[in-house]
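ARCHIVE CARD
SHELF: 3
SLOT: left
DATA:
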Amino acid sequence: MADTRAFQDEVGRWAAGDTGGDTARELAVELGLRTAVLLEGPSDFAAVETLAAARGRDLAAEGVCVVSMGGAMSVARYAELLGPPGLDLRLTGLCDEREQGYYERGLRRAGAPDRDFFVCVADLEDELIRTLGPAAVEEIIRVEGDLRPWQTFLSQPAQHGRPRHQQLRRFLGTKKGRKIRYGTLLVEALAPDQVPAPLEDLLGSL
C-alpha cells in the first residue's frame, strides 16, 4: 500500500529532474490525492502536520499531501508538476510576504489560482512567535535545554537592541534542524484560539 511519504519523495525526485513523473502519477491515483499543500521548507511542513494532527485531521485519508519544496523559488516547478499542467491537483499553501511575487508568477504560469495561498508577514516562525509572545517562546527554549545557546546568542553584538521576537526568529535558524523542531513545539504550545491566521486559514481550506 502506497503512503504519502513515498509520493513526497517521488515528487522531490521529479522536481529535481531525476524521474519522468510516472511513479508520482501512479501514487497520486492510488492515494486518491486531490490537493497538494505547497510549503517552502521542512519547518513549515512540521508546523502544518502538527496542527492537523492536533485537530484530529488525517490529511492523507482526506486526499491531501503536504509538500516541502526546498525554497520559495521552486514554486513554479512544483506548480507545473502538481497543478493543472501535471497531476491537476488543487494547489494551496503558505508563502512569505516578501516572496509572494514568486508564487503569483509561478501559479499564473501553471494556470493555478493564487487565492488558496495564505501569506505570512515575515514567515511562519515569526507568526508563531508573535502569537505566543516572546516570554512563552523563551520558556519553551528553557524547557528544551537550549537556554545556554540562547543566552550566548543574545550576547552577540549584532543582537543588541533588536526586538525580542526578531532575536527569537533569528535564533531558531542558527542551527540545522532547530527550525524544524521548534516548528512542532511552537504549534503544540498554541491554545485553540491562538493559531495564526495564515495557518488557521490554510487548515480551514483543506
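SLOT: right
DATA:
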Amino acid sequence: MTAAPADLLIDRPAMTDGAALWRLAKDSKTLDLNSSYSYLLWCRDFAGTSAVARGTDGEPVGFVTGYVRPEHPRTLLVWQVAVDSAYRGHGIAARLLDGLTARLATERGITGVETTITPGNTASERLFTSFAARHGAHLEREVLFAAELFPDGPHDPEVLYRIGPLTDFTAH
C-alpha cells in the first residue's frame, strides 16, 4: 500500500539520498541514467535547487533535480523528474515541480523554467505543459540538441521547453 500524496513530505535531498535517486531514475526506464556518482554529487552540490518526495518511512519516492542557469540566474533548468511506479498517477511530479519552483522564486527570484524533453515522452510533455497552464505562463518549444549532436549512438533530439514569466510565485 502506498502513502497518499498528502502523506508525503517534500524536502531537499541529502547526500544520503543519492543512491535512491539513482535507483528511481534507473527504474523509470525513460530517463537517461547517469552514473551513481553523479546523483551523489547532485545531492551535495545542487540540493538547494532540487526536491524529493519522501514516503512515511523517509525514503525518497520521487524527485526533481535542477539548477539555476549561471548566465540566466532567474531561470531554473529542470534536469530530471522521476516518481516511483507505485506512486505514479497521484500528481506527485506536479507537486514536486510546483513546490521547488515556489521555493526558488522566493529564495532566488526565478521567473522562468526550462527543461528538455525527447519527442514521445508524453508524461513529461503533460507535466510541463500543465505546469505552464496552471501558472498562466507562456510556453515555447524548440530543438535544443539535434539527434546528430549526441556522440554515443542513436539519441532522439532534446526539445527545449521554455516556460515564463512566472508571475504568480513572485506576486505573493
